[in-house]
Amino acid sequence: MGLLGNELAFAQALTAQEREGVMALGIPKRFAADAHLLTEGDRSSHVLIVVKGWVTVSVATDRGATRLILGLRGPGELLGEMAALDPHPRSATVRALGPTEAQVISGDAFRRFLAQHPRVSGLVIRQLTARLRSADQERSALASLTVLQRLAGRLSELSGSGQGTPRGPYARTAPSSSSVVQLAQDELAASIGATREAVAKSLRLLRTQRIVRTGNRVVEILDPELLALLADGHTDTEGQQA
After folding, report:
1. What is the pTM of this model?
2. Which part of the chain is the HTH crp-type domain (predicted)?
3. Choosing a second label site near 189 at 20 to 30 A (CA), which of 17, 49, 170, 216?
4. What SS3 string covers the chain?
């Protein structure tokens, strides 16, 4: 499972000349918190490169208004490239977590740039492949892992407590050096494809075992090693069945 990804952001993987060239194709645009940068089902074909801020990428589920968060994207990330490369509607919604700035590039200009810069075209293909692989892993997790495992894995990832995992936009360090994830329970549920009630039940168990402490839109990780064990499927912790 992974919302953050582990590869360089698109703009960071470009040379200085490539980055200057692609950014010159577009215009800067600011988005308020909660604004939609891209909307699922829309027929537009422009792409975005995030300059400042973080966004969520989500899709609608069979449960109507419920959405599944597929990823978190930050500075340097390329968004909307699929709609620029094929004629199909957008496959996901991109929403600003806070005030966000992005460079908006028309689909036609972006395609011409890729045709003239094969190395950059290769980077886009690699990014699409990585995101497809991540989506496959997420689907596998939904089918094979319990809500507790998925929640433990997501908290480890977002807090940066997992080995080799980057710290996400939802995380900060508490004065005690423990990690804190700043997410509401419904947002956590959306990030693992579970109901809010199931997440609340799992959080109660984690609190009982003193693995986490929760507050208003806050989950403090007290025992990251034990949390990682739960994410890996070790359900017997200190003699208690999770």
Report:
1. 0.78
2. 145-225
3. 49
4. CCCCCCCCCCHHHCCHHHHHHHHCCCEEEEECCCCEEECCCCCCCCEEEEEECCEEEEEECCCCCCEEEEEEECCCCEECHHHHHCCCCCCCEEEECCCEEEEEECHHHHHHHHHHCHHHHHHHHHHHHHHHHHHHHHHHHHHHCCHHHHHHHHHHHHHCCCCCCCCCCCEEECCCCCEEECCCHHHHHHHHCCCHHHHHHHHHHHHHCCCEEEECCEEEECCHHHHHHHHCCCCEECCEEC
Report angle CA 153, 155, 158 to the nearest 5 degrees. 110
- The tens digit of pLDDT for each residue in 147-158 reads 999 999 999 988
Q: Which is it for the CA torsion 67, 70, 72, 78, positive or negative?
A: negative
Which among 120, 108, 146, 142 has a CA at the least distance from the CA of 241?
Answer: 146
C-alpha 221/C-alpha 170 separation (Å) is 13
What tens digit of pLDDT does each residue of 2-54 get?
677 667 899 999 999 999 999 999 999 999 999 999 999 999 999 999 999 99
| Contact by Cβ (8 Å): 170, 74 | no
Structure tokens at 13: 């993987």
